[in-house]
Design brief:
alpha/beta; 434 Repressor (Amino-terminal Domain); Rossmann fold; 3 domains; 6-stranded parallel sheet; 12 strands; 44% helix
């Protein structure tokens, strides 16, 4: 017996509406009353109507697309950000979701535009600021979101990131245990602090707290992400009468030029000066002298962000906060503090 193919007209007759109303329910192009919409969707389920894939996604109110919001602002180091993005995309594909990458600096307007459309089921938001203007809107949306990063007030949100405060503390502790008494933090570009970007503020907090805890002297130096700025920073640090014997770097692009500038100035690493970085392992490992570092686990955080989002989409419980503990790997760039001559 041949199987009857259910057509849109069959659904309309069953639901007691016009075929165009069924089309509008499927396309979302016009607002249909909730009661009519439910009646049409009930008929679709009962009759086993199979619209084409795009319409089927709308009928189930699922687009199987996740938005990844990465405003590529000045001061952002794109290669590391893209490691998060690639991990998110590959994990989403394992869950049969595609990723819509939103990179323009649109903030709240971009978020509202995407949320008001049927384009995406859920959102991942990156480059989170302490007073992020997107946060109040995220709390009101009817679709789930996960933030990679923590605003000052994370209540009502799902957030994940490396524990950057603990990462800075781990770097300072390592140096204090090697006998260093004066350390410098070469940090993110100045505009990153001006925007009060969460990870930069937390590294600064952790650095200050650990310096105080171990009774060290320590100064934060924001630094532009250029080789020229790195050379100027090296000269400035070495010219200081209280020149540090150790430097913590949280600014991936300046790690290598900074080390080169120290060595060009006749400083041996780690004999005269220890260097510790907060950066992805591959940056630390490929340096001329492999760097002691706390890894930025971009792949792990990107993957976990998507897993949290998928659990939320299925209505499952998730922790409000996931802080990935720092992992410090000692390599060739850190050693005992030099003995004063």
């Amino acid at each position: 017996m041949g199987r009857h193919v259910v057509k849109i007209t069959d659904v309309a007759r069953h639901a007691g509406v016009s075929p165009s109303t069924v089309s509008y329910v499927l396309s979302g192009k016009r607002s249909i009353s909730a009661e009519t919409r439910e009646r049409v969707l009930a008929s679709i389920r009962e009759l086993g109507y199979r619209p084409h894939a795009g319409a089927r996604a709308l009928a189930s109110s699922r687009s199987n697309v996740v938005a990844l919001m990465i405003p590529l602002r000045s001061g952002i180091h794109v290669p590391v950000v893209m490691q998060f993005a690639v991990a998110a995309v590959t994990t989403a594909r394992r869950h049969d979701h595609d990723v819509l990458l939103l990179t323009q600096e649109e903030g709240v307007d971009g978020l509202r535009r995407v949320a008001d459309s049927a384009m995406v089921d859920a959102l991942i938001v990156m480059d989170v600021q302490m007073d992020d203007p997107r946060v109040p809107l995220l709390r009101t949306l009817d679709r789930p979101s996960v933030l990679i990063g923590f605003p000052a007030d994370a209540s009502g949100l799902t957030c994940i990131d490396l524990d950057f405060r603990a990462a800075a503390e781990a770097c300072v502790r390592h140096l204090a245990e090697l006998g260093h008494r004066s350390v410098a933090l070469v940090g993110s570009p100045p505009e990153v602090y001006r925007r009060r970007t969460g990870y930069a503020e937390r590294v600064a907090e952790g650095f200050r707290a650990a310096v105080a805890e171990y009774g060290l002297t320590g100064v934060l130096h924001p630094c532009e992400s250029t080789a020229e700025a790195a050379r100027a920073m090296a000269a400035r640090l070495l010219a200081d009468e209280h020149a540090p014997t150790a430097v913590v770097v949280h600014n991936e692009p300046v790690v290598e030029p900074l080390v080169r500038a120290f060595r060009a100035a006749g400083r041996s690493i780690p004999g005269d000066l220890s260097v510790v970085a907060i950066c992805p392992d591959e940056v630390a490992e490929r340096a001329e002298r492999p760097l002691t570092s706390v890894t930025v686990p971009a792949e792990e955080v990107g993957r976990q962000a998507v897993e949290l989002l998928m659990t939320k989409l299925e209505g499952g419980p998730v922790p409000a906060a996931t802080l990935v503990p720092p992992r410090l790997t000692a390599r060739a760039s850190s050693g005992p503090a030099p003995v004063p001559s």
